[in-house]
């Protein structure tokens, strides 16, 4: 990561205006969004959107052709091109042919994408943004920081300074007054403009219509008052059927701003009369700019299902800390990273792809049903493929790939004593135990790893067997969690075996784009875990569970390796996380927790992978309640703790404030204990509480439950 | 559906009324205009776009009211305080109004004025947008406009503020005997 990039992050996280505004907004957004979707089956709705957009993405050429024919039949002029330069030239030519002096624009990301404004201005044409947020940043000479709310990073004081200069009068920071000033200032521009330029939220092939939505009403004026209207539409906005407009409009405003419908929606099909009675000169530009290449890529095609609602930004724990500018000039946030990699170039996404902590919050709310974190991982993988790994990482992975050496070094680290003071490699092994910085204490590597302790545990001989996959953290840092797990499962009638040859689950290399390493880890683990016939392969680490359950398969698939796929699928079929297995045992009456005791308040932190990939959130809560705890939910219980494997090592400036927020939310519940299902989260949160000298116990659910067995 | 519409529209700061007859609606509109300071000068007059509501009305009497104009131009619309038009449909589930706005006059009075008064036949209430789209095909409607509440922004510090480029108030007047547009 370049220092310039790091500096931009530091600047952003220390910008109190920015993080304050984004933080407040993201909190309100979640509540309002839920309200806007009340009574709507979101999964069903986004299923339909994904289907219709995916169909369009597979038929871009046909739909472009159909759109062109239909729009031209209504009298519009349609220009199709691949090339942003041609778009700019076309618009300039139309302007010059018609002697256009001034242009009014309603918000359009596509025009930002091709840097249209400076181009027209250089040719002597005055370009005025009319969306209030866009106008503000145009006056400030900045770029938008959010797709839907371009000026969210600015305060009312800053805006009043800008406007004061514009109107030559000292204005106060009274917001309604500022909005009035904007109305009064922009009204003459609308009336005088020779040309209006808009984007298009949707383009309908079947009818040649474009759909425009605004809350302010500026798009209505941009498309009504000037005699020429040019709409610049990326071809990913195409849909086949007119009736499907209603499907997208059911989700877009709800997801974007938690509104049932945007104040103004216009569906424009062909030219309409101008105020002077003449007919509009309507041009629609269908721009490709790498979109059809994206559609041809089996992995990235789904990114074209995006309807540009920006809800992925609104729920992203990273975005709300750093805002849009860190991501670059045009598209921001998770989806912005993906679009930048394609519309710009892969290399441009090198730094920003690293901002994603893979928490999955965006994927949950995306109305286009896009697996954003997965696509970001794919970018990571391709970057590594193109450019190779940094040397240090390479060295680390060559060790991770050799289980004996890897485990030998971990043992050496425990003998060397207190955490990570010696040996460069050791300090980075496993990656997530590295020299983490402020705000958190780290666990020492256990004097005796779980694999050694296991041999001393006496288990009853039981018919049903489960293989325990410990993962590096439980094996080498928290062996007591593994002991608790065995105690519980034995009580439930399951004997636990511990396949010695198990090794790193491959998540750290995978999350760093080193898929080859992850694949070789996967093969080693498959061999080890399937050697003996067991009913379950159980893990108490959600990251590992996800690896066993999903990622071995997807890693092989990404690399086109088929040899171990069938085995990987068998392993996935047996894999189960601790809370789900215990719930099953309890429900089947094989395991009883001591009931009827009053253990007091507890709060529960949802680990990202458990909640959003494995979809497990109720099970641990029910178990804790059964055990006698009174569950007090914390605010944002399912927001990432900032650990993210090696993320906290690479971007401590982001990880630390996310952790602080989590700690505050935990403390505010007043509960003396916080439980969670992930040893990584335990490490992060326990370390944070320890530095904080807060008297709150941070525990894995397995430890809590093991104490409450009947 | 009327009740649902009213709740939803008021939820986005529109003002909703309903009258049995055109005469009663007309009386209400005139009364409202006067109460809000109707006068024959810039920023105080009203501009009424031609619409079925006016059919069979005593236009002479209406034209006699000072400040009430019927010749819609861009210049007039941009300084009108009130814009009056008929919207053909209402969508109950979002509290939206919809209109075939191909005629520019319809757009001018509803987008440039400060207060937009929308006359709507009660029979034009539809359940939702799919119902609207199945009724109005782009072939017959070059500019389909939907309006949900007054113009709004939250671009400065996320504070919801009414009336940016479009009207700052939206007055919806349902008329039971206005017939249908279907
Ligand atoms: S990726 Fe999904 S959530 Fe993000 S802007 Fe696109 S549709 Fe919205
Ligand atoms: S996975 Fe999490 S961190 Fe990554 S883009 Fe999505 S919300 Fe942001």
Overview features:
heterodimer; A: 710 residues; alpha/beta; Rossmann fold; Fumarate Reductase Iron-sulfur Protein, Chain B, domain 2; Glutathione S-transferase Yfyf (Class Pi), Chain A, domain 2; six-stranded parallel sheet; four-stranded mixed sheet; 35 helices; B: 182 residues; 27% helix; 26% strand; globular; binds iron/sulfur cluster
| CATH homologous superfamily grouping of the largest domain in chain A | NagB/RpiA/CoA transferase-like
User: What characteristic shape of chain B results from the CA principal axes?
Assistant: globular
Strand order of the largest sheet of chain A: 1-10-7-4-2-3
Helical residue percent band of chain B: 25-40%
Describe it.
The complex is a heterodimer of chains A (710) and B (182). Chain A has 710 residues and is an alpha/beta fold. Helix content of chain A is 51%, strand content 11%. A 6-stranded parallel beta sheet of chain A has the order 1-10-7-4-2-3, sandwiched between helices. In chain A, strand 17 (673-676), helix 34 and strand 18 (697-700) form a beta-alpha-beta unit. In chain A, helix 2 (16-36) crosses helix 12. The longest helix of chain A is centred in the N-terminal third of the chain and has 21 residues, at 16-36. With 182 residues, chain B is of the alpha/beta class. Chain B contains 6 helices and 12 strands. In chain B, the strands form 3 sheets. Chain B has a 6-stranded parallel beta sheet, sandwiched between helices. The radius of gyration of chain B is 16 Å and the shape is globular. The mean pLDDT of chain B is 93. Strand 9 of chain A pairs antiparallel with strand 9 of chain B. The complex binds iron/sulfur cluster (SF4) (2 copies). The site of one iron/sulfur cluster has 13 residues of chain A, from helix 17 and helix 18.
Compact overview of the structure:
The complex is a heterodimer of chains A (710) and B (182). With 710 residues, chain A is α/β, with parallel strands linked by helices. Chain B has helices spanning 2-11, 22-35, 59-63, 74-79, 104-111, 129-135, and strands at residues 15-19, 46-48, 68-69, 82-86, 89-91, 96-100, 115-121, 125-126, 143-147, 152-153, 161-162, 169-175.
């Amino acid at each position: 990561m370049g220092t310039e990039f790091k500096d931009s992050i530091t600047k952003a996280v220390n910008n109190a205006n920015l993080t304050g505004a984004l933080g407040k907004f993201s909190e309100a957004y979640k509540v309002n969004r839920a309200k806007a979707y009340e009574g709507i089956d979101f999964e069903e709705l986004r299923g339909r959107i994904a289907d219709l957009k995916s169909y369009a993405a597979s038929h871009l050429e046909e739909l472009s052709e159909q759109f062109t024919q239909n729009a031209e039949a209504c009298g519009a002029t349609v220009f199709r091109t691949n090339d942003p330069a041609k778009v700019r030239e076309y618009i300039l030519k139309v302007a010059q042919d018609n002697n256009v002096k001034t242009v009014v624009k309603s918000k359009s990301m596509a025009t930002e994408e091709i840097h249209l404004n400076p181009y027209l201005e250089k040719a002597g044409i005055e370009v005025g943004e009319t969306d209030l947020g866009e106008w503000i940043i145009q006056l400030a000479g900045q770029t938008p920081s959010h797709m839907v709310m371009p000026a969210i990073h600015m305060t009312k004081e800053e805006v009043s300074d800008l406007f004061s200069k514009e109107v030559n009068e000292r204005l106060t920071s009274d917001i309604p007054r500022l909005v009035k000033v904007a109305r009064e200032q922009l009204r003459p521009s609308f009336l005088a403009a020779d040309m209006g330029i808009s984007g298009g939220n949707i383009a309908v092939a079947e009818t040649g219509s474009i759909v425009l939505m605004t809350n302010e009403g500026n798009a209505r004026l941009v498309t009504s008052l000037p005699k020429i209207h040019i709409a610049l539409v990326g071809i990913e906005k195409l849909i086949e059927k007119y009736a499907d407009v209603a499907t997208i409009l059911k989700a877009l405003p709800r997801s974007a701003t938690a509104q049932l419908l945007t104040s103004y929606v216009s569906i424009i099909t062909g030219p309409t009369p101008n105020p002077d009675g003449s007919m509009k000169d309507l041009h629609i530009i269908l721009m490709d700019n790498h979109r059809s290449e994206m559609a041809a890529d089996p992995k990235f095609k789904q990114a074209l299902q995006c309807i540009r609602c920006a809800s992925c930004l609104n729920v992203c724990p990273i975005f709300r800390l750093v805002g849009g500018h860190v991501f670059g000039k045009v598209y921001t946030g998770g989806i912005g990273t993906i679009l930048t990699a394609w519309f710009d170039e892969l290399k441009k996404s090198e730094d920003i792809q690293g901002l994603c902590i893979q928490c999955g919050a965006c994927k949950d709310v995306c109305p286009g049903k896009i697996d954003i974190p997965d696509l970001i991982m794919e970018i990571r993988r391709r970057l590594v493929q193109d450019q190779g790994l940094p040397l240090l990482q390479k060295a680390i992975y060559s060790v991770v790939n050799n289980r004996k050496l890897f485990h030998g070094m971990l043992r050496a680290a425990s003998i060397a004593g207190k955490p990570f003071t010696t040996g460069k490699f050791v300090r980075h092994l496993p990656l997530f135990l590295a020299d983490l910085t402020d705000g958190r204490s780290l666990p020492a590597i256990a004097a005796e790893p779980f694999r050694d302790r296991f041999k001393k545990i006496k288990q009853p001989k039981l018919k049903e067997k489960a293989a325990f996959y410990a993962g590096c953290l439980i094996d080498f840092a928290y062996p007591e969690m593994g002991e608790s797990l065995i105690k519980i499962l034995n009580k439930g009638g399951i004997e636990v075996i511990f396949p010695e040859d198990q090794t790193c689950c491959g998540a750290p290399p995978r999350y760093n784009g080193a898929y080859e390493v992850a694949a070789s880890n996967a093969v080693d683990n498959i061999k080890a875990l399937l050697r003996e016939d067991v009913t379950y392969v159980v893990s108490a680490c959600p990251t590992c569970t996800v690896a066993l359950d999903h990622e071995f398969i997807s890693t092989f698939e990404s690399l086109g390796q088929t040899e171990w796929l069938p085995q990987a699928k068998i392993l996935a079929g047996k894999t189960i996380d601790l809370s789900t297995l215990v719930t099953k045992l309890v429900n089947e009456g094989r395991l009883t927790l001591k009931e009827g005791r009053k253990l007091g308040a507890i709060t529960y932190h949802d680990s990202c992978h458990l909640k959003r990939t494995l979809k497990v959130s109720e099970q641990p809560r029910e178990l804790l309640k059964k055990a006698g705890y009174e569950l007090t939910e914390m605010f944002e219980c399912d927001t990432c703790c900032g650990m993210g494997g090696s993320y906290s090592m690479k971007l401590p400036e982001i990880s630390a404030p996310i952790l602080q927020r989590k700690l505050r939310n935990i403390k505010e519940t007043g509960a003396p204990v916080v439980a969670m299902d992930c040893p990584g989260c335990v490490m992060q949160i326990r370390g944070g509480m320890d530095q904080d000298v807060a008297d709150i116990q941070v525990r894995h659910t397995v430890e809590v439950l093991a104490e409450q067995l009947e | 559906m009327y009740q649902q519409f009213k709740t939803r529209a008021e939820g986005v700061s529109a003002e909703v009324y309903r009258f049995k007859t055109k005469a009663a609606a007309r009386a209400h509109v005139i009364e409202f205009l006067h109460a809000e300071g109707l006068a024959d000068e810039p920023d105080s007059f009203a501009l009424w776009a031609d619409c079925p509501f006016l059919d069979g009305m005593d236009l002479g009497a209406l034209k006699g009211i000072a400040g009430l104009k019927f010749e819609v131009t861009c210049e007039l619309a941009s300084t009108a305080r009130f814009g009056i038009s008929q919207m053909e449909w209402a969508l109950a589930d979002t509290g939206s109004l919809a209109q075939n706005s191909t005629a520019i006059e319809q757009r001018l009075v509803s987008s440039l004025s400060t207060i937009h008064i929308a006359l709507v036949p009660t029979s034009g209430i539809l359940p939702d947008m799919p119902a609207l789209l199945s009724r109005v095909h782009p072939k017959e409607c070059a500019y389909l406009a939907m309006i949900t509440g007054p113009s709004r922004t939250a671009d400065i510090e996320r504070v919801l503020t009414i009336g940016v480029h479009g009207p700052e108030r939206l007055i919806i007047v349902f008329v039971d005997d206005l017939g249908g547009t279907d």
